[in-house]
Design brief:
about 110 residues; mainly alpha; 2 domains; 4 helices; about 65% helix
Length: about 110
């Protein structure tokens, strides 16, 4: 028996029509999804708000009251001037800068 042609298959199986493609979501399902998400968020709102407030408070307090730990590190050659002058001094007399920094720490 010969195999049916593609046109014959479309006539025999109209549900498998390739042209129609997958069903498109309607706005009703999108609204239902938005309502479901809204209900889920509102149900967890009593837990979310205090958690977010606590995280915000910790972040703000850490930034306002916290000290910078790098501020206590001594800078060798600070009396030389800017960064470029310190770099040049390091290139030519690194041992002197090392001893100066050692004296500041001890």
């Amino acid at each position: 028996m010969p195999s049916p042609t593609p046109r014959a298959l479309c006539v025999l199986l109209p549900a498998l029509d390739v042209k129609s493609g997958p069903p498109r979501p309607t706005t009703r399902t999108n609204m239902a999804d938005a309502q479901t998400i809204s209900e889920a968020v509102s149900a967890r709102l009593p837990f979310l708000l205090p958690t977010l407030a606590a995280l915000l408070a910790v972040f703000l307090l850490r930034n306002v009251l916290g000290r910078n730990p790098l501020a206590n590190i001594p800078v060798a050659g600070q009396d030389l001037g800017g960064d470029e002058k310190r770099r040049q001094a390091y290139l030519f007399k690194a041992a002197d800068l090392y001893f100066e920094g050692y004296k500041k720490v001890c």
